[in-house]
Amino acid sequence: MRTWTTLPARLLLALLLALTAGGAPAADELLVLSYHDIRDEVPIDGDPDAFAVDTQNFAAHLDWLHGRGYRPVSLSQVLDASQGRGRLPDKAVLLTFDDGLRSVYTRAFPLLRAYGYPALVAVVTDWVDLPAGREVNYGPRPFGREDFVTWAQLREMRESGLIEIASHSDALHRGVPSNPQGNSTPAGITRIYDAANGRYETEDEYRARIRADLARSAESIRTHTGASPRAIVWPYAAYNSVTNAIADELGMTVSFDLEGRSTPIAPGPGAGLHGLARLLVMGNPDVFDLTYELRRDPEQTGVRALQIDLDMVYDDDPAQAGRNLDALVERVKRIGPSHVYLQAFADPDGNGSADALYFPNRFLPMRADLFNRVAWQLRTRANVKVYAWLPVLGYELSDPRARAALAIDSPERDGIFRLDFTRPEVRRIVGGIYEDLAANSYFEGLLFHDDAYLRDVELPEFARGQPEARTRALIDFTLELKQAAERWRPKLKTVRNLYARPVLEPQSEAWFAQRLDLFNAAYDQTALMAMPWMEGSAHPERWLDRLVAAVREHDPQLTRTLFELQTVDWNTRRPIDGAQLKAHVRRLSAHGVRHLAWYPDDFVADLPPLEDAREAMSARSFPYEER
After folding, report:
1. Alpha-carbon distance 50 to 48, whole Å?
2. Is 460 found in the same domain as 583?
3. Structural domain tally of the chain?
């Protein structure tokens, strides 16, 4: 969030934005700001608590919101708008405070009362009135009784009419064991691994644990404040449709996450209030930083992604696997991409289809419970968004009879083994794999593998002579898989691999059942395989130029198409020179390409070399390390 411009530049930026601020939110658009600790004399940089905001900066935020026409609203107003009993004002904003820290009463509440601004305070009920001597491992230091709000203070704030008390769970604000290696992930979304008995929590046990926790939290809030909570703020913004359904049953029909910053609120059938977007206020921003963050268009932010083989992390020796993981996380952290597309399937023979999976599931062998471990480490230690990379059709079932009976009977023998997605049994199996992935892992999006193609000589009776119908059928199947995963991971983003030939030679849609315009309409992004050596080009630069021109016919601003480069010439098995890769990135950027990725990224051999990788694929404003 913190900008690195000089003060005069930031002042100029703020003035320009104030003069050109024509993009005010629509009448039913709700901006939600998420605060934690409000504390005096927070340093501009280097405070150990990244979520602490200086009291003066917080007061300036309230003054800035008032001066720019923002209208703070209460949770009741949001609920009324969603149920057709009123409309939200222009530039509506809801202020929220997480964790129940004492400063919400001593620092934030007096300022909110002075401005007459309503707010939502979400408390971890197990931390309220903490017994003397008990401590909570809270970020920069252990927190004790004096660091958290009391029930008396919560009751006073609620009775003021400005503050609504929400649940932040009773005791889900912690990590729990998630795999045999002993890694911890958020308690609200994790099937706990019982090392003593070598088993995972069942779905029924998981549901019962979540229900009991939320019921304790809701009852504590009702007993001590006189009002039952109507909202749940999920710890770490980690939730799923199952936990939201449990919250609904307990009267908490509103929930929040940290994806995006605003949500349209409109009455109508199915107009729920789960998963409301919030802008996390961190880095102690002043009003210039807040201005920049609220005015910038997130859609203009470019993606820089590394596609990574989890097969390279896996090792029969757990200690070596741990060292591999550390090397991967360190490399990703030093490069600084925005995204990692992480392999969730095992392909040790390199034939493009899944022999096993890296997560607990009902359908294929589990090579190791590794995906969730690596994904969470990348998210928390390297600060990247992790997308699960998984086949659509390419699953080599363990039962040879089922494998043969359900496979696409293809006369072409040089492709990836694939299952026949027109068969209900295949749809059940693959949908179940995606559901199991989501039930047991943390990720923010899906990358559909390049096995999702269909040649014109395959499944000849299916939509014969109708390339577009075959293309759309595969798209529909992938969206069905997304829906299966979203039972456990709501609001997933989607990316799908696309071969270059259907873009350069549109008639080849019949050979692939792939088309760029249809992909860009169906998915958040299309990962176009911009791989000239794989396509046999003798002139890679000219080939890339031609590819960009062809893409512009369907995506003129290049907003939906991600260009994925190759870092290895698979024909010669030699790595592409780092200088040439950087030249290709510069060339594509000069053409206006916004979103870039590459594959593979070899963290073991340091290929492409770290310095080249950082320059080419960093999402940072200044990607170079200080010396």
Report:
1. 6
2. yes
3. 2
